[in-house]
């Protein structure tokens, strides 16, 4: 199958099998590229959701369907509750637009369509929620909004605000919360009870975020320090300087020191350009802070029996974020980046050298400014 195609690209034989046998649906298929062309994003995130809802309606044994959205689908709102918000453009209209208009025209009008939305991902996920609300009437459907995840790669510098609360959710706990959401949906939906007729109830919404249970504002991971790490400046201008010196200048390496196992200059420069673009996009979320409500999610956890709380734990309040971040970063550096912990002492020394260098130049610059200011005052008032 292909979620970007009509009827999900499923053959008639497979569709019949799904209709006759499926009881629970978790719809999480989506393109998560922030810079995805609008046409592609709509076909996958919006139209794909509509096609999934149509398939769910045809399933004769359906007990529950969980549509996995994102906590930032309504990022233009400063306060996000567990409810549906007005879509930037009704899903059906958005689908008709990309199906009938030329791709070049769509690309040209994309900025105007996005409005205050930072990217096509958030925009289409918001529109997909409108589709869920419209096409799920009479179905056992729930809307699940987990926070954003992050990965690792070549990124050395990220424009972020250390004073803003980070919103991170462990992937395994997201899965547990999804399973619990499906259980509760099947349990409470009137149509799943012989003595109760189906009702057109609005789908319940579950925000699964960590900001309710505050993460430490600044987690210093000195024991997991990477040898290539540097101080993270908040100023966008200083970030650009760091990006230039730490991303693009290293790409010149093949020019001055040839190595057969390294990619060509242009390939490496292109890779870093893509990383720079990604950092600009993710910066919208890294520099801002939202107020989330998650009473439904907290209530869901309280309804679980003790055995299920153990087997399907998703209680964010029980996480020790200091230990979590240490294990998280240590695991990334050792198992993904193949950077052994033996390099940590050298990394810490480098960190302090960079810190001292930073404050030294700040002090020198301040003294120069004060000296110039003093000379100007002296010449003006003839001290």
TrEMBL record:
GO molecular function (one): alcohol-forming long-chain fatty acyl-CoA reductase activity
Q: What's an example GO BP annotation here?
A: long-chain fatty-acyl-CoA metabolic process
Q: Which GO terms describe its cellular component?
A: peroxisome
Q: Name one Pfam family in it.
A: NAD_binding_4
Q: Which reaction does it catalyse?
A: a long-chain fatty acyl-CoA + 2 NADPH + 2 H(+) = a long-chain primary fatty alcohol + 2 NADP(+) + CoA
Domain spans labelled Fatty acyl-CoA reductase C-terminal: 271-339
Return the broad EC class: oxidoreductase
Which EC numbers characterise this protein's activity in its record?
1.2.1.84
> Which family does the entry's similarity section mention?
Belongs to the fatty acyl-CoA reductase family.
The task this protein performs is described as: Catalyzes the reduction of fatty acyl-CoA to fatty alcohols.
Protein name per its UniProtKB record: Fatty acyl-CoA reductase
Naturally occurring in which organism (per UniProt)? Operophtera brumata
For this protein's source organism, the top of the classification is: Eukaryota, Metazoa, Ecdysozoa, Arthropoda, Hexapoda
């Amino acid at each position: 199958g292909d979620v970007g195609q009509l009827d999900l690209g499923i053959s008639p034989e497979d569709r019949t099998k799904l209709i006759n046998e499926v009881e629970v649906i978790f719809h999480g298929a989506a393109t998560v590229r922030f810079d995805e062309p609008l046409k592609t994003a709509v076909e996958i995130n919006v139209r794909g959701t509509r096609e999934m809802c149509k398939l769910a309606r045809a399933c004769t044994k359906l007990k529950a369907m969980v549509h996995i959205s994102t906590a930032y689908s309504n990022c233009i709102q400063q306060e996000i509750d567990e409810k549906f918000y007005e879509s930037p453009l009704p899903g059906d209209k958005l689908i008709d637009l990309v199906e009938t208009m030329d791709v070049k025209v769509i690309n040209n009008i994309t900025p105007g369509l996005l409005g205050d939305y930072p990217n096509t991902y958030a925009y289409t996920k918001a529109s997909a929620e409108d589709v869920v609300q419209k096409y799920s009437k009479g179905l056992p459907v729930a809307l699940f909004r987990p926070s954003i995840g992050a990965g690792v790669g070549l990124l050395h510098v990220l424009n972020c605000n250390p004073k803003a609360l980070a919103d991170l959710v462990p992937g395994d706990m997201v899965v547990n919360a999804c399973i619990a959401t499906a259980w509760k949906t099947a349990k409470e939906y009137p149509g799943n009870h012989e003595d109760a007729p189906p009702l057109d109830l609005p789908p319940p919404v579950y925000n699964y975020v960590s900001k309710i249970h505050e993460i430490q504002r600044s987690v210093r991971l000195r024991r997991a320090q990477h040898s290539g790490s540097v101080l993270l400046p908040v100023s966008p201008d200083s970030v650009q300087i760091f990006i230039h010196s730490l991303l693009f200048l290293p790409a010149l390496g093949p020019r001055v020191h040839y190595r057969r196992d390294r990619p060509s200059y242009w390939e490496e420069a292109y890779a870093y350009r893509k990383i720079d673009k990604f950092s600009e996009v993710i910066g919208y979320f890294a520099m801002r802070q939202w107020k989330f409500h998650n009473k439904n999610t907290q209530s869901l956890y309280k309804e679980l029996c003790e055995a299920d709380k153990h087997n399907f734990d998703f209680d964010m309040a029980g996480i020790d974020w200091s230990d979590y971040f240490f294990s998280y970063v240590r695991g990334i550096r050792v198992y993904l980046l193949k950077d052994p912990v033996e390099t940590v002492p050298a990394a810490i020394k480098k960190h302090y050298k960079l810190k001292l260098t930073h404050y030294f130049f700040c002090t020198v610059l301040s003294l120069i400014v004060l000296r110039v200011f003093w000379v100007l005052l002296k010449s003006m008032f003839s001290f």
